[in-house]
Amino acid sequence: MEILAFLGPAALYMISMTITPGPNNVMLTASGANYGFLRTLPHIFGILGGCFLLFAGIALGLGLVFERYPIVQTALRFIGSAYLLYLAWRIATAPPPDLRRTGEGRPLSFWQAAAFQFANPKAWVMGLALMAGFLPEGGDTVMNALLLAGFAELVGLPCVALWAGFGTAIGRWLDTPRAWRIFNGLMGALTAACVIFILG
Predict the structure, then answer these.
(1) pLDDT tens across 80-112, in order?
(2) pTM as predicted
(3) Which domain holds residue 149?
């Protein structure tokens, strides 16, 4: 029952962290605009699934790997930055939906989005602070970690979905190829700019 006392503050923390801009939310906005909300759902659930595994792993000792082997953290930062730049290029160069050839362009899959969380600095910061601040000291550590990580993703779901919905709404207003090019270029630039925070 001790964990119940942490859920209210943990929920407020997760709302503040997941509703604010970051690599995931910028990419969800672009995906919602270009592919629609339904086709973006695997991306949304991939983020949640990846963060669940990451957060639970942090509570069970994954964070110690960074402390003992700093090279792992450095490698993840460069891998994450390279992948983010690739995604930024894909977003920036995506043609308008009505000009795409059949099968051209796809939103991120569940597994792509999930894997990215392990190289996403914001996800690591969220997970480390969540588990350090809200994981009960008593009781079964594994069960508490799984419950807290699951609760965090339940709270985060509407927050990240809001960004995909926002993108879907924007997509309805973009009615010319030029408007699409400007929007996709801006989303690509914002995604690439996140690399500054990863390597900074």
Answers:
(1) 888 889 999 999 998 887 655 555 568 899 999
(2) 0.87
(3) 24-94+105-199
